[in-house]
Specification:
CATH topology of chain A: Rossmann fold
Distance between the termini of chain B: 40 Å
CATH architecture of chain A: 3-Layer(aba) Sandwich
Oligomer: heterodimer
Number of domains of chain B: 1
Mean pLDDT of chain B: 95
CATH class of chain A: Alpha Beta
Low-confidence stretches of chain B: none
CATH superfamily of chain A: NAD(P)-binding Rossmann-like Domain
Shape of chain A: globular
Strand content of chain A: 15-25%
Distance between the termini of chain A: 26 Å
CATH class of chain B: Alpha Beta
Number of helices of chain B: 3
Strand order of the largest sheet of chain B: 2-1-5-3-4
Strand order of the largest sheet of chain A: 3-2-1-4-5-6-7-8
CATH superfamily of chain B: Beta-grasp domain
Number of domains of chain A: 1
Shape of chain B: globular
Largest interface: A-B, 42 and 26 residues
Strand content of chain B: 15-25%
Number of strands of chain B: 5
């Protein structure tokens, strides 16, 4: 697996306001002023602004990622409010993406927030990841997660796939050259149900961990969950880390010869 | 021999418990173990574990003694005595 340390654009400097705003994090491991400048020049796509994605977006904005692209269709609903910390009761019925953008802009006006009132799909994923250094996959449907995975692998974008179910949090990070989400989950599982038990604090843990992975990756550190499925049971704080090998013949990240062999074609000599 | 099976995600919810300790014959394969779990568990558990034709679900990550077992080796892998098998179904709660 390869983790490239992104170069720092010499023209991207931190203003006095930014130096003050980020003063408490400049001394954090793996960050520093150079890392903070890398955050400022980076773009990150967040797929779905729910309990996980909304929390990730919140902490990415707080940390000073230069540009956030938020992709989500649909309004704020009452049953979102146990976990979607960017939303509040007066905003019921408003497009969720608008509310998220307002909240993040108020938190950190240095962050450019672009909103896309669509969920990620095969039709738009490549366009949405274009120009991004990283992406957070936080959709409640595998079709969206897998579409984002394919686009991220194709574009060489680091993808942090963050999910939860009941009292369990999962993180899996896709980096260039490593196994992708399709190696882990080659197809959308029909037995996955769109509605799932969720406590806000648990989705918050998933979103916060995703933000840490993205921030560290952008700053130049190797993501902790690269090629590794991390499973945290918050009832015991037991944490499993499972190394995931690339799937032979993966239709997304496998070699061209592997993909052709998997499809029954003959690779060229 | 004794095998410990740990459940996660929706498999845990369908099984109704966190883990099982099973007595199985020496030489039992992973495919055979998962089929046994599906047969002994509640009906809701089976589709999480097996495809319609009885193979291990391709989206189920199976970890044996700390190592994920690659897809093409899973059905025939022989389980050892006192092995710990963890079943990790796909999760997309967001």
């Amino acid at each position: 697996m390869r983790h490239r340390q992104p170069p720092v654009d010499a023209d991207v400097l931190l203003s006095p306001d930014e130096l003050d705003r980020y003063a408490w994090q400049l001394g954090v491991t793996d960050l520093g002023v150079a890392g903070q400048r890398r955050l400022k020049q980076a773009s990150v796509l967040v797929s779905r602004i729910g309990g996980v994605g909304g929390t990730a977006a919140l902490y990415l904005a707080a940390a000073g990622v230069g540009r956030l692209v938020l992709a989500h269709a649909g309004p704020v609903r009452r049953d979102d409010l146990n976990r979607q910390v960017l939303m509040s009761t007066p905003e019921l019925g408003r497009p969720r993406i608008e509310v998220a953008a307002e909240r993040l802009a108020a938190l950190n006006p240095h962050v450019v927030v672009e909103t896309v009132g669509e969920n990620v799909s095969e039709a738009n994923a490549s366009r949405l990841v274009a120009g991004c250094a990283a992406a957070v996959g936080a959709a409640p449907l595998f079709t969206e997660r897998l579409a984002l995975n394919a686009a991220a692998v194709s574009a060489g974008v680091v993808l942090v796939d963050a999910a939860m179910y009941d009292m369990e949090v999962r993180i899996f990070t896709v980096v260039p050259g490593g196994p992708c989400l399709a190696c882990l989950c080659p197809e959308a599982p029909p037995q996955w149900k769109r509605e799932f038990p969720v406590l806000g604090a648990v989705s918050g843990v998933a979103g916060a961990l995703a933000a840490v992975e993205v921030v560290r990756s952008l700053a130049g550190a190797a993501p902790a969950a690269a090629g590794r499925l991390v499973v945290l049971d918050v009832t015991t704080l037991a944490c499993r880390q499972v190394e995931i090998a690339p799937r032979s013949g993966c239709r997304v990240c496998g070699t061209r010869a592997d993909r052709m062999a998997s499809a029954g074609d003959t690779p060229p000599p | 021999m004794t095998v410990r099976v740990e459940y996660t995600g929706q498999v845990r919810a369908a099984a109704g418990r966190h883990a099982d300790e099973l007595e199985v014959d020496a030489g039992t394969s992973l495919g055979g173990l998962v089929a046994t779990l599906a047969a002994l568990g509640p009906p809701a558990l089976r589709p999480h574990l097996l495809t319609a034709d009885g193979r291990i679900q391709p989206t189920l990550v199976v970890v044996v003694d700390g190592r994920a077992v690659p897809g093409d080796a899973r059905e025939a892998l022989v389980i050892g005595d006192h092995a710990t098998v963890v079943l990790l179904p796909p999760v997309a709660g967001g």
